[in-house]
Specification:
Blueprint (H helix, E strand, L loop, with lengths): L3 E12 L2 E13 L4 E5 L6 H9 L6 E6 L2 E2 L10 E4 L11 H6 L2 H4 L4 H14 L15 H14 L4 E5 L7 H18 L2 E6 L2 H7 L2 E6 L2 E6 L1 H6 L4 H6 L6 E8 L2 E4 L3 E3 L2 H7 L4 E6 L5 E4 L8 E11 L3 E7 L8 E6 L9 E5 L6 E4 L8
Parallel strand pairs: 3-8, 3-9, 6-7, 7-8
Antiparallel strand pairs: 1-2, 1-4, 4-5, 9-10, 11-12, 11-14, 12-13, 14-20, 15-19, 16-17, 16-19, 17-18
Helix pairs in contact: 4-5
The structure holds adenosine-5'-triphosphate.
Membrane topology: Peripheral membrane protein
Subunit structure: The complex is composed of two ATP-binding proteins (XacJ and XacK), two transmembrane proteins (XacH and XacI) and a solute-binding protein (XacG).
Catalytic activity: D-xylose(out) + ATP + H2O = D-xylose(in) + ADP + phosphate + H(+); L-arabinose(out) + ATP + H2O = L-arabinose(in) + ADP + phosphate + H(+)
Length: 367
């Protein structure tokens, strides 16, 4: 069992007399064997959180517990945690084999032979057996990345911590390594905390994702929950590409009145809005239906004009405006070979089943 618990973990940096709260009362339980992705924009406190778990940074307030034991004060090497860095942090003058086994002699009770066979086995698992006698400088980025992973794996730790480990790889290799890493983590069944600013990486890799903003945890959920039921405006805008479209509206009776349209609500949705009067309506680009101009048939269909079309291969991002000649007000994603072009009128449908509603003032999700 390796359950990792962050209990109101806070980090305050002293920046020349001024307090910077980098991590603000973050609480999350990471189950044994779970792959948790910590995601958020630059500066939100991801690395600081990971470094506190690793013991590379002190905890200002709160507790970090591993298997029920508080580890706040324990030095890094006594935490049974292995960290993989973005920079790989390999020793350039050592071979791959030496990089993987370095320090193991002192930190485990294993004999040299046992360590040797562990390194060989791990090398096979990672497909780097032919490279074991090379030095890091003679390896590609992807191979170095595997060595860095191998070094973490041979330690057989209770927890893996990974800080943007794939960000130095090109797009193709990155997506290949994502799948590999995921499979590896599943096979090894080691509790893992993985930091990234890339929401695609978070969505595709994590059992659950923890979304941070300004040091504050916004939501901890499975990727699908975060996508379908974002807890607030921040999560809604952060998860999904292109981002969710937002329209500020005011509730009048059972209608949401936006600058360019009125959106009547069913009784059920109206009830979900409750007492909120300033309501932000969100709709994902992929949930918008585009119909031929003149075919508006309901209260949730709006006449628009295509501004620009961004071809993405098998789908197109269509930027639309409520007024002819105006700047784009929102974006819709359409699949298939349907062709649309700038200046063309179209009807945009925002199906009620797909819309998200938020209290504009608090940001909290209403529906
Ligand atoms: P990135 O994705 O850019 O690496 P991050 O989410 O990992 O960002 P952190 O590196 O954890 O963010 O930083 C969180 C906040 O704490 C930032 O505002 C940063 O400037 C601040 N910070 C980090 N380390 C220190 C430090 N040693 N002293 C003062 N402030 C710091």
């Amino acid at each position: 069992m390796s359950e990792l618990v962050l209990d109101n973990v806070t980090k305050v940096f002293d920046d020349g007399g001024e307090d910077i709260v980098a991590v603000d009362e973050v609480s999350v339980d990471i189950a044994d064997g779970e792959f948790l992705v910590l995601v958020g924009p630059s500066g939100c406190g991801k690395s600081t959180t990971l470094r506190m778990i690793a013991g590379l940074e002190t905890v200002s307030r709160g507790e970090i517990r591993l298997d029920g034991q508080v580890i706040n004060g324990r030095p890094p090497r006594e935490r049974d945690i292995a960290m993989v860095f973005q920079s790989y942090a390999l020793y350039p003058h050592m071979t791959v084999r030496q990089n993987m086994s370095f320090g193991l002699e002192e930190s485990t009770e294993k004999s040299d032979d046992e360590i040797e066979s562990l390194v060989t086995e791990t090398g096979e698992m990672l497909g780097i057996s032919p490279l074991l006698d090379r030095k890091p400088g003679e390896l590609s980025g992807g191979q170095q990345q595997r060595v860095a992973l191998g070094r973490a794996i041979v330690r057989d730790p209770k927890v893996f911590l990974m800080d943007e480990p794939l960000s130095n790889l090109d797009a193709k290799l990155r997506s290949q390594m994502r799948t590999e890493l995921q499979r590896l983590q599943e096979d090894l069944d080691v509790t893992t905390v993985y930091v990234t600013h890339d929401q695609t990486e978070a969505m595709t890799m994590g059992d659950r994702i923890a979304i941070l903003n300004d040091g504050v945890l916004q939501q901890v959920a499975t990727p699908l929950e975060a996508y379908h039921q974002p807890a607030n405006l921040f999560v809604a805008g952060f998860i999904g590409e292109p981002s969710m479209n937002f329209f500020e509206t005011e509730l009048q009776g059972d209608r949401l009145v936006a600058e360019n349209f009125d959106y009547p609500l069913s009784q059920e949705t109206r009830e979900a809005v409750g007492d909120s009067t300033h309501v932000t309506l969100g709709v994902r680009p992929e949930d918008i239906e585009l119909l031929d101009s003149g075919s508006a048939s309901g209260d949730h269909d709006f006449e628009t004009v295509v501004d620009v079309v961004e071809p993405m291969g098998n789908e197109n991002n269509v930027y639309l405006s409520f007024e002819s000649g105006g700047d784009a007000d929102f974006v819709a994603t359409i699949t298939g070979m349907r062709s649309m072009e700038g200046g063309q009128p179209a009807v945009a449908r925002f199906p009620e089943s797909a819309i998200h509603l938020f209290d504009t003032d608090s940001g909290h999700a209403l529906k």
